[in-house]
Q: What sequence folds into this?
């Protein structure tokens, strides 16, 4: 009787291991960014602030990830010793080729999200949704969901859906929860135009 | 250790339970649902910097200013330009999604030949040279048999129009048929010396008497509806809609006068009778005595009996129209008879509305770079003057409206083996018997000029700018006509691309230094004379601007004649039909008409209106009950001209003794049931309806 129960329990345990440990490895495809970038060096050593690169346009729109033109303002030539900077100058700046960044927070086409209104009207800080990304020394691998095609950051780090921080997950539920918390209307056309 | 079958089953059972406690099924299900959003054939806008450009909508002559939001180079949304002199920030539902037309499923991007019977969708692609060869051959055949080669132009007044006219004037049996506002053309022939292009001055009218004109629906710029509602709330404008059906305009008007179908001319002459009898007229025509004799038989009591409108209401309407000035009578030229148009225009002439602000004013034709040939006018023809079955080759411009009535009339003019060459980018139901489709670029892909929108106060000129490249294989209409001329051995047509010809016209407009231009990027209006060169004017126009000429000064009422245009109105014949069940066509004149629109427009339509239900006949409940029908039953419609099966639908908005027929699948088929007069209008026709 005792062994009979053990076989059943072994089945449960094996499947739990496969589901919680093996499955995430299979589900997410890890991709390295085309170039390494240190927010830390740019903010601490170069003395830049976030809005030096992540700017708002004159009409109020947020520019998001800066284009190559912004990089060119300082890196028309190699000014340091980093191999990543060398790669930036030789492969992108000199060839005038945009860097194909893999965007962790990219939302689906059917969702309309305005950084400007969240920062300027709701007074949210960047790290509320993006975490301590602005202080990192290197860019972590981008994890692409093989089925949906979206970044792992959209679902959140844990497959259980349990959030460890406010920036852990950017699903519709996460948006709706925050809107509910602050009594902001949650109508469909608010995000889906 | 021996593993038994039972132990394996226990392990599998445990795994199944464990499986449900893992994220595998739930996450896979969720991700699979999201995966459907990313199927490779779902179009995605390209990513890039957001920028804004300005242009002018070219889908209809209203010439609305547009702000185009682009992602990279791709237009992704459109909105109105708030200070634009013509549309004041508004756009119609079709215009808002006009950038989708590039991807329309019915679009073709290379010349095709449609094979088989009329309306066949079987097509073969061909080169432009092959198409030209076939068309020239058909033109040569026509020349030898004295059949007509017709150029049908839906928007006269453009550079392309002048090329059409030149071509028509040069070849034997060539005819240029401009499709313009028929009622105003008729008015021009009623007065002795028309001093410009007539236009309805709707904005400044105090009383508007509209005979079926979809004023608040699809006529002119959408800003008009907003202006009307504003004036209505301030009691500054009074709209009387005279129409058999309660259209959207009728529903929003101050008064709706439902008429028995086909009695518009009688009603208008009834009003003229009251105006003359009560001495409310302002001007005297040269044939007033004959006209008085003619309308003497149209007393309110007789007219009331025929039209189904109370005599008192006829008198009140006549008094309001004549006394609450400025007033304006308008009529839809396509769905009304020539007599009805003449009768309505007679009201304007009698009450002195022509040449008066708030009535019918004039504006000038803008100059052309290409001179019109001296014999150009001899090749002009109005649609009604072309004999039936006489056109061998018909070249239809893209700008032809999608009105099914017009399609049927054109088809009637064609000889049995005639061919239609359609310069349309879409193959839909419209080119009903087209053999050749030579698709031009669509909106946003080429420069298109827009001059003199029908509701602008003064002459104006705008250009729809090419913001995206056209696909290879499309046919530029200007180049088509030039190459066709070359193939036909004509060398007198001017050369140059559309852009080059437009630049020359803009230079000519600049030389006049007349009026103002609107700069879309700044929202400011400046004097043309302050510009330093024609190139500056071109840059302003190609960037969504608009040139507005100063308004023409009002002129004295011209001398006119009435009787000869109305002598065919026979009250006695009409009297005999007023108790019969009359069949009328139910033609959708709104945005859901036959115009090619973005499929996304289906979101703003009622499901019942979008469904293809075939032939339907709408009857008032009492009429249906009298005929022993039930709502939804199948019936047979029989007229002297044909018969058709239809589904009977009861609708309280239809007048008693009227049967309104429509066919969402084949509107042209419906028209075969009707009587068509020589004036090319479709007349209400007596019908017998019986249950199948």
A:
């Amino acid at each position: 009787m005792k062994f009979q129960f053990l076989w059943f329990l072994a089945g449960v345990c094996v499947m739990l291991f496969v589901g919680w440990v093996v499955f995430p490895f299979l589900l997410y495809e890890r991709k390295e960014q085309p170039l390494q970038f240190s927010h830390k060096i740019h903010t601490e050593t170069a003395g830049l602030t976030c809005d030096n690169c992540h700017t708002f346009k004159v009409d109020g729109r947020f520019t998001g990830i800066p284009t190559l033109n912004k990089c060119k303002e300082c890196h028309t030539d190699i000014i340091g010793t980093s191999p990543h900077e060398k790669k930036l100058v030789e492969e992108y700046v000199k060839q005038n080729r945009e860097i194909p960044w893999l965007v962790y927070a990219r939302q689906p086409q059917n969702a309309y999200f305005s950084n400007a209104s969240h920062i300027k009207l709701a007074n949210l800080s960047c790290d509320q949704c993006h975490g301590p990304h602005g202080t990192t020394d290197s860019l972590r691998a981008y994890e692409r969901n093989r089925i949906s095609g979206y970044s792992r950051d959209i679902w959140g780090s844990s497959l259980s859906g349990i959030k460890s921080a406010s920036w852990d997950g950017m699903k519709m539920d996460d948006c709706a929860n925050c809107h509910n918390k602050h009594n902001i209307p949650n109508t469909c056309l608010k995000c889906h135009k | 250790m021996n593993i038994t079958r039972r132990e394996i089953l226990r392990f599998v059972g445990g795994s199944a339970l464990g499986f449900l406690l893992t994220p595998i099924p739930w996450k896979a299900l969720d991700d699979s649902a999201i995966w459907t959003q990313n199927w490779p054939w779902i179009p995605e806008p390209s990513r890039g910097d957001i920028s804004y450009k300005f242009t002018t909508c070219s889908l209809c002559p209203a010439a609305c200013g547009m702000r185009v939001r682009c992602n990279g180079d791709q237009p992704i949304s459109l909105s109105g330009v708030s200070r634009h002199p013509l549309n004041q920030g508004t756009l119609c539902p079709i215009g808002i999604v006009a950038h989708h037309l590039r991807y329309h499923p019915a679009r073709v991007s290379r010349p095709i030949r449609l094979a088989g019977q009329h309306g066949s969708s079987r097509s073969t692609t061909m080169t432009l040279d092959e198409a030209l060869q076939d068309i020239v051959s058909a033109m040569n055949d026509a020349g030898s048999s004295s059949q007509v080669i017709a150029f049908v132009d839906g928007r006269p007044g453009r550079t392309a129009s002048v090329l059409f006219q030149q071509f028509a004037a040069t070849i034997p049996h060539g005819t240029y048929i401009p499709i313009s506002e028929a009622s105003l053309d008729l008015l021009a022939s009623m007065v002795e010396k028309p001093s410009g292009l007539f236009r309805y001055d709707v904005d400044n009218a105090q009383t508007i008497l509209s005979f079926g004109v979809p004023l608040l629906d699809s006529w002119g710029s959408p800003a008009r509806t907003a202006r009307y509602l504003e004036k209505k709330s301030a009691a500054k404008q009074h709209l009387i809609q005279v129409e058999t059906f309660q259209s959207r305009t009728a529903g929003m008007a101050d008064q709706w006068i439902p008429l028995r179908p086909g009695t518009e001319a009688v009603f208008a002459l009834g009003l003229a009778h009251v105006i003359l009898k009560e001495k409310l007229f302002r001007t005297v025509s040269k044939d007033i005595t004959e006209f008085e004799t003619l309308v003497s038989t149209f007393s309110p009591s007789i007219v009331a009996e025929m039209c189904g409108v109370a005599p008192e209401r006829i008198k009140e309407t006549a008094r309001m129209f004549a006394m609450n000035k400025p007033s304006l009578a308008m009529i839809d030229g396509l769905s009304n008879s020539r007599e009805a148009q003449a009768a309505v225009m007679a009201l304007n002439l009698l009450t002195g509305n022509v040449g008066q602000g708030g009535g019918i004013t004039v504006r000038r034709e803008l100059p052309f770079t290409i001179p019109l040939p001296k014999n150009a006018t001899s090749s002009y023809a109005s649609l009604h003057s072309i004999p039936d079955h006489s056109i061998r080759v018909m070249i239809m411009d893209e700008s032809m409206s999608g009105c099914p009535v017009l399609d049927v009339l054109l088809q009637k003019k064609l000889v049995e083996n005639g061919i239609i060459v359609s310069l349309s980018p879409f193959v839909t139901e419209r080119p009903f018997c087209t053999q050749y489709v030579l698709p031009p670029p669509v909106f946003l892909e080429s420069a298109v000029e827009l001059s003199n929108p029908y509701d602008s106060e003064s002459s104006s000129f705008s250009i729809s700018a090419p913001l995206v490249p056209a696909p290879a294989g499309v046919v530029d209409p200007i180049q088509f006509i030039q190459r066709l001329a070359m193939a036909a051995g004509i060398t007198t047509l001017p050369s140059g691309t559309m852009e080059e010809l437009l630049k020359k016209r803009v230079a000519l407009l600049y030389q006049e230094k007349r009026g103002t231009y609107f700069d879309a990027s700044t929202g400011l209006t400046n004097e043309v004379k302050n510009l330093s060169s024609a190139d500056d004017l071109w840059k302003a126009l190609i960037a969504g601007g608009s040139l507005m000429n100063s308004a023409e000064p009002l002129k004295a009422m011209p001398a006119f004649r009435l009787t000869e245009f109305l002598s065919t109105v026979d009250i006695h014949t009409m009297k005999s039909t007023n108790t019969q069940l009359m069949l009328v066509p139910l033609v959708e004149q709104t945005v859901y008409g036959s115009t090619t629109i973005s499929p996304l427009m289906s979101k703003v339509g009622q499901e019942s209106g979008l469904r293809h239900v075939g032939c339907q006949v709408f009857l008032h409940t009492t009429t249906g009950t009298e005929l022993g029908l039930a709502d939804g039953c199948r019936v047979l419609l029989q007229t002297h001209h044909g018969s058709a099966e239809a589904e009977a639908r009861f609708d309280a908005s239809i007048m008693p003794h009227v049967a309104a027929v429509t066919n969402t699948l084949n509107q042209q088929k419906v028209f075969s049931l009707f009587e068509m007069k020589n004036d090319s209008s479709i007349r209400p026709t007596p019908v017998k309806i019986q249950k199948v």
In short: The first strand of chain B starts at residue 50 and ends at 56. Chain B touches chain A at residues 6-8, 10-19, 21-24, 27-28, 30-32, 34-35, 37-38, 44-45, 49-50 (CB under 8 Å). Confidence is low (pLDDT under 50) at residues 589-593 of chain B.
